[in-house]
Specification:
Blueprint: E1 2-5, H1 10-31, H2 38-46, H3 63-67, E2 74-77, E3 81-84, H4 116-130, E4 135-139, H5 157-175, E5 180-183, E6 205-207, E7 214-216, H6 218-229
Parallel strand pairs: 1-3, 2-4, 4-5
Antiparallel strand pairs: 6-7
Helix pairs in contact: 4-5
Length: about 240
Amino acid sequence: QEYTPASPSAADEIAVREADGGFNRWFLDPLFGRGYPADMVRLYARQGYLPLQGMDAWVQYGDMEIIGAPFDLLGLNYYSRSVVRSDAVPERDNLPQTEFPAPRSEWTDMDWEVYPQGLYNLLNRLHFEYRPRKIMVTENGASYSDGPDAAGRIHDVRRIDYLREHIRACYRAVQNGVPLAGYYVWSILDNFEWAKGYSQRFGMVYVDYATQQRLPKDSAYWYAQVIARNGLEVDQAGV
């Protein structure tokens, strides 16, 4: 997950570090042999989630060596970012907000901001901070409810735009030396989502849940062309 401070204030920077620590560093640091991040251990102990005695009370002998064993590939799921505003200080005591999400009219149907720059940022961060052997984007996509028109075509232009810009972000990261080994769209089919059931449609293929009919969306035909040419259409960016 990509986190952006809502302002340059110390309070917002701390809030971002804690959010990132719980969602990203808590898992990445041990995987790369760094152990659990000390700032988050202290925070979780103060909050009552971990014993106050220290890590010896909950980490078994040999755990960290097993967790930090070498591995071949790091998978990254990316959909959006979070603009973080601290609630540790009253709003009047914080600096004015300078970072804002895009207008909600530009968000996906999951109420997630479309922010390709976040994927670029994360890919670079993973490479330069952790140095995995290879990285793979194991999930990236958007939920839009576009359905069939009278001719049975599904013109999901927003999904095509979303995928194009995120693939372009991957390309820019590769140009920086990021060892990106692959990219997977979520998902081929509309399917059951964890907390949303069948109300969200991430697929490049439309599923009529009543009849089980499958209809490729425009994004499926577009992505087939991307695969065939092994790249995006050539434009001013050369991508």
